[in-house]
Fold this protein.
Amino acid sequence: MRRFFSSGLPHADADRRRLLRASLAGAAGWALAGCGTGSDGAGQGATAFAATLSGNAATRDELAGLYREARQGGQHTAVVYGAAVDAEWEPLWLAFQADFPGLRVIYMHVSPTQVMSRIDAERQAGNRMGDLLMQPVNVLPLIARRGYFEPWRPASAEGLADEYRDEADRAHYPFSKVFGLAYNTQQVEADALPQHFDEVLAPAWQGRFSYIKPVTAVGTTDVAFATLLRDGVVDLPRLQALHRAGLFTGPDAGVTYVSQGRLALNPWGYLAVVVRQRALGAPVAIRFVPDFSVNVPFGFGVVGGAPHPASARLLKSWLFSPRGQAAVAQQAYQLGTMPDAPPPPFYPDNAAERERLHRRPPPDALVADLEAQRGMLRDIFFRPKPT
Amino acid sequence: MTASNGSGVSLQGLRKYFAAGKRVTTAPKRGAIDGLDLEIADGEFFVLLGPSGCGKTTTLRCIAGLEEPSAGRIALGGGVVADPAAGLFVPPEKRAIGMVFQSYALWPHMSVFDNVAYPLRHRRKGLSREQLAREVGAALALVGLDGLEGRGPAELSGGQQQRVALARAVVARPSLLLFDEPLSNLDAQLRQRLRQDLRRVHEEAGGTSIYVTHDQAEALALADRVAVMRLGRLEQLGTPTEIFLSPATRFVAEFVGFDNLLPGRLTGREGERASFLPDGWSREVSGRAPAALAVGQRGLLAFRSANLRLHAGAAGEGAANAFAARAGAIAYLGERFQAEVAVEGQRLLASLPLAAWDGRGDLHHPPAWHEAHVTLAPGDAVILPAEEAGTDSATTDTVAAGAAAEAV
Amino acid sequence: MSADFPAGALRRPPPDFLSPRRWPYARLALYAALFFILVWPVLMLVVGSFRSAAPGFDGAWTLAAWSGTFDSPGTGRAMGNSLVLSLVSTLAATLIAAGLAFLSERTDVPLRRGVTPCLMLMFATPALFYALGYAMLGNAYTGSANKLLQTLFGTGAAWFDVETWTGLITVMVLKKASIIYLFLIGPFRALDPSHHDASLVSGVGQLGTFFRIDLPTLTPAITGAVLLGVVAGLQAFDMVLILGWPQDIDVVATRIMSFINGAAPPDYARASVLSIALLAVVALLCILQSRLLGRRSFVTVAGKSGGGRRIRLGRARWPLAALVGLYLFLAAILPIGSVVFSSFQPFPGLYEGYSLQHYRNILALPRVVDAIQTTFAVALLSGFAAMALAVSVALLARALPPRRAALLRFVSLIPLAMPGVVTALAVSWAVVSVPGLKQLYGTFWLVTLALVVVVTPFAIQVANAAVTQLSPELQEAARIAGASPFRAAIDVVLRLIAPSFLAGWFMAAVIVSGNLEVPLLLRAPGLNPISSVVYSLYSSGDFSAASALLVILLLAKAAIWGIAWAGYRAWVAVRGQRRRRLLGALAGDSGVPPSRPAAASA
């Protein structure tokens, strides 16, 4: 059997033991230092660190003030519960942390169905951890209405269109996730792509495309359908035909299937994944065909009674600042909602093209639409495929 | 004696190495055999006797076919069953043997009946169920266990299990029976009883038996002939009487209980009688010497403490083998007393009959005698050849101790 | 009065059932800890199935979950899938494992020395790793095995599709065979050779002896292995998650997970009901097994070891060796190689441009460095806590009367019946139902606690094995020499079992570091162990990054193992030197070489 405590000459013995104990303790200490919530990244004293600010005077003042407040109040983290898988948001948080040294964003993936119970449980347990909720537009208004947020409007969100803010200022949407028509470049030529909804129902595309299953936790397809239904592009028979022709996938799998060559198309496919996989060399590309594109705004609300209110507000404010909006586009590949936000890669940057894309109804109307269509969608898509 | 008929066993130049290819040296790996030649006669009860690690079990297993010899020849009943040089090896299931193991080796998932019937079913195929039952019943009756056919081995006592193992070994009427220390797991009383049963079964079965043990009392009680083994070699081969009374080497002498050993020189002889001068002694001792030992050669005088009698008072004049002694502490052995004595400046162990000591004073202390002397009958003193050069007592002890330490 | 007592004597009150002497605090504390960790969660799970709200919330008592769960077709399908998966894979895996154990222990087939180390490696590899490896290898579109075969033989269609029922079962069989093999190897080795020999001398050949004698003696062990395999199959999670989702294969564990993570609001009650159903099935299986074996105890009396003669295979040697080699290749080398390979690929399906970019990328992510630290910390802590508990239980069980000791052991095996998902759920229920502990909900400590529970049965096996080798006389000798009970325990027991403790700690840490279900279910901000980072990378399509991270995990484990090994060799060398010096000193004194003491057991 293995024994770790070597036994040599008495003094060498003791030295060796001490060294071994010290190194084990050191390793354990290093490990334990890196765990748990709210562990402090740079962890230095509350001296002035140079924050990088952007935007107009009001924005800069707000950012500077919140930063100071956070540092002085010992709030070194902002805990975000978001409805998306963690991997892709890291670059965005890193950009924030670069702008505001000494602060750290701790992001945890909590799905829309779970997030309210999570907050409730934390409140019940008396152990509040979440500061901000990042959720899509199909659930955020509900959460806001149930009183989870404290109303607070960042100065940097001056100029934000009304459809991107809650009327009581409980939640604001700094960016939208972008979905377009992703396709496999080896199997499909760009000009052979379907341009209208009906084209994808053709036999040529039968079984060669997938989309996220409707009426599940991820609402992308639901939002798309709500938009298309409102604009009269689809109706019940067309949706049934869609069900017959295509396949379902989980949230991020659609683009992956296309990259792997399993399928040729992914309507309402996630741009950020396309960008990342394409950068690695996958044969995937994306086009913003109006009928197969949708933007799903993601909003932030500061949780009432959050443990780190200052850093939470700072993060929310930063997301609307010019630097934040640029980071959103370039690090996270999302579309900022401020009027002059730069577009993410591959997204059309001229207004004309953007005009062609369908406009989604404002949040409350959207929520009502989603509610209304749920039954119909369930009837269509939760049955076995019609032959 | 040649084993050309019936069930005699013949071993010629048997060698078994355990470390692949290495020659056996003075400190052999446990259990190796280094050149064994034995001829066992048909119907004989032959005992292999020796300490743990001497190779006796390995020899038995080679005869059984459970080990393959590295060199040599084994023949059972005249037919060669193992000859590595000729590439011949008959597997155990093809040899007509029965074997009793030290751990009984009764199969736990079978009843007593099935255990005993197993060899019958496979060695003598084609028996009807009645015949089978009759043979099994006969075997069990032979060992005194009729009526226990239905039990499982776990429900039997140690002695009963051993009897079942015995019944299983004899049921198929093998011509050769092998016993691998069958009684060593049993307590002393049971051992005595079963010993008699073993011998009786051997007589009634009528074949040859080879029995392995480290217990000299067992060997002497059971054997027709005994082979004492040590470090893979034969030390001495003879009848129990020869082994017990006339050991041929120091090792055998110590093994059978000679507790006084004195190195010295043979000074004269007259047929069987010889005179021997131990180193440092002033007078000679007369004893028995084998013919091979010549006058003037160095040798070893061996005698049992039971035969060296201690007497109070001075030795009579002219008495043979009477020496002045100073008595030391006395211990009680049950049937006699044993005393440490100093004779000619050396410490020996001597005996006192129970009657000689009146119980006055403490045991474990020297008796309050003015003078004392010891006597030894010449017939009880055996003169052995000296050890070969290069094997002194220290090494022997070390190796033996090492072998004992490694023994399971 | 004091004059009657000699100095140092203890005053002992008359023996009384409740007197502190019979119930020392330490023992009580241990019982309490065991109860809280092992029994209370199951009780709370049952209670939770009757509640309408999440753990810790105000809710009503309701039977809705009980009536609703089994009606839903999805649940029925999941249970059916689980049973089929479990039974089929266990059957195949047991055959393979028994064959391998027989070949490696009783025959002289070449390659036999590599079997046990390879299978131990497979056992130590997390199921996640395995599943990922096969997914990379055998998926019909970009699988490297398919690509290789297509290049070599030129057919268009894919040869394998591992993301199907067949693929899933095959992969499960390969992994499960390693668990069952390690379970069977002990009984195979412990087969009394004299039983085998007795059959040979009774006239039955080698093969006949194997089927008539060896195999029946192994029946208890084999049924135990089959039971273990079935239970493990019912708990399958990682592999089903990764390989089963294209075909939407749902099993009980994933279904429980989807009740909690996929329903809005999370349906804890239904999850609890399904968990209890699973536990009931496992309990039934255990009872069935003990009934089948009945009172037949195949205890073999230990006799002299005759060397365990191996069967000579003759002409069948090389074909059998090829089979063994094929299994080792398929089961151990291929998946690990596949993960390593895909960590260098830019993207699955691309066969050029290999580089270390993925390693660079993920190590640059603070999240990944955090994950490594977190995993290390959690594994270290949980492993230590589990082993400490296990050693205490093992030592305690020795001092108890047999029935209570058996009960103790039974209780300690409860978590074995629960998949990680159920354990996490049960522990959540247990923790929030205790007033002072509610705050632990959603924190690092809850996850650690759940992992301790998950790994305790394994730790107890190791601790039992170590402690049973210790004779109580060792402690008694220390007591007689003047040590207090506590001191005797430390000086004698702990020092002697230190090697096993450390080995068990390492093994528990390995199991914890590969666990995916608990972190997926019990989330805590900032707590992202490697397994969940790998999973999130995988599900967002970053396969190669996931592979790179897994390779790093494997290298870290190997490094720790290597350090331990080097430390052991160094210690053995130093010990040998010290002993020689000591012997030399002794020889110098008396001039007689002392006899060598019996070799210490390694």
